[in-house]
Amino acid sequence: MGFVVAALLIPAVSMAGTTSARSLLSNASAIAKRDKKNVLVIFHASWCGWCKKLDAMLDSPEFKSTFDNSYVITHIDVMENGDKKALENDGGTDLMTQLGAPKNSGIPFFAILSPDGTKLGDSVLPKTGNMGYPSEPFEVAGFKALLKKTAVNMKASDISHIEAFLTAQKSG
Prior knowledge:
The chain is α+β, with helices and mostly antiparallel strands. It has one domain: 3-Layer(aba) Sandwich (Glutaredoxin), CATH 3.40.30.10. 40% of the residues lie in helices and 16% in strands. A four-stranded mixed β-sheet has the order 2-1-3-4. A hairpin with a 3-residue loop joins β5 (124-125) and β6. The protein is globular.
């Protein structure tokens, strides 16, 4: 049985003045439905180096169109500190937990949802936990498997190119 976003009990109005996690997800799901894509929800924070590395890959000229062709990517800000706490999206931490982030999980944590909110996969690997940014060989393999399962418009050659990039990052 899939995880359905409609079942979430997250307030739609943000207390911190940012857009609520539920609103961000709802908007992304509407676009994904219209464009026949899936939703890639990334939970991140301003201080997170691995989050920035993931975003740099997704936004790079080399891969941006590849990911954008298959996913509507939305970011939800969680785990901020001090004066950055106001950046958090209300309900983000609860949504992260509901989407399967292990207790005390690091970030980035990401989940992939169908346009109707069914969870298709996430960044949690069996036995090792949240992969975050895929840098270790077993994480790269897990990320590749996730792409194969959820990237609706990605060719096998695109996935192999991403795999080679991530593998080279580790050895380079």
